Amino acid sequence: TSNVIRNMRDSLLGYFTSILGGDRLSANFLLMHLMSQ
After folding, report:
1. Where are the domains of the chain?
2. Over its length of 37 residues, how does the chain's per-residue pLDDT go in tens digits?
3. Spatial CB neighbours of 28, under 8 Å, sequence gap ≥ 6
């Protein structure tokens, strides 16, 4: 379901954001890049 995908996206976004030192914008770009592969 789309709800599961959204939850996964949110947790990945939080994960990338913490790796990138709180840079949520870069985390969003990284996530979009990975999902477009």
Report:
1. 2-35
2. 899 989 999 999 999 999 999 999 999 999 999 989 8
3. 13
Q: Which residues contact 13 (CB under 8 A, 6 or more apart)?
A: 24, 27, 28, 31
Amino acid identity, residue 13? L
Torsional sign, CA 37, 23, 19, 2: negative
CA distance 2 to 21: 28
What pTM did the predictor assign? 0.75
Q: Check if the beta carbon of residue 13 is closer than 8 Å to that of residue 27.
A: yes
